[in-house]
Write a structure and sequence with these properties.
about 170 residues; alpha+beta; 5-stranded mixed beta sheet; two-stranded antiparallel ribbon; 6 helices
Length: about 170
């Protein structure tokens, strides 16, 4: 319930035209660790393994909003991975969250960031709102970063947030 309330409040804040972005240079490791810690009980309950490689990366971002996006991506990875592995690591100026979950159907991939789109997995799960990945993309873009997703049914999903852009879309 807490996550759904946070998602709704973030949706309202982001759409209000008023932002509270505070762009600074942050060490990425504490942001990732806090997000992982939030879901540590779910990792245990769902019997998922976590592979975490602490990054030595500093990024220009807003800590609160980036953490919201990362938490949502971890939540999705946990929701769609049963007794599997979730891996969080960095390559160059990107953080990658990869899982060995059920994956996303190829026909759903082009639309997963569309507002309200739940796709096959969301209809099966009956708990998806179609707002989470849309919010992640909006937040990531407003922060001047980029987000991509790759997936294969039965193999898993890989989400990449790249911090190598210098444009900040802050109103």
């Amino acid at each position: 319930i807490e996550q759904y309330v946070e998602t709704v409040l973030s949706y309202i804040r982001l759409g209000s035209g008023i932002n509270d972005f505070v762009i600074r240079r942050y060490d990425l490791d504490p942001i990732l660790r806090q997000a992982i810690r939030k879901y540590s009980r779910l990792f245990i309950l769902r019997k998922n393994r976590l592979n975490y490689s602490p990054p030595d990366l500093k990024v220009h971002t807003d800590e609160k909003w980036l953490q919201f996006a990362i938490e949502h991506l971890l939540s999705n990875a946990l929701k769609y991975t049963r007794d599997g592995t979730i891996t969080v690591y960095c390559v160059d100026n990107s953080v990658i969250i990869e899982d060995t979950g059920i994956g996303i159907a190829p026909e759903d991939l082009p639309r997963v960031f569309d507002k309200g789109y739940t796709g096959y997995n969301g209809r099966e799960d009956k708990k998806a709102t179609g707002i989470g990945l849309y919010l992640c993309r909006e937040i990531i873009h407003k922060l001047g970063h980029s987000i991509t997703i790759e997936s294969e049914v039965g193999v898993g999903t890989k989400v990449t947030i790249s911090f190598d852009t210098t444009h900040f879309d802050i109103e």
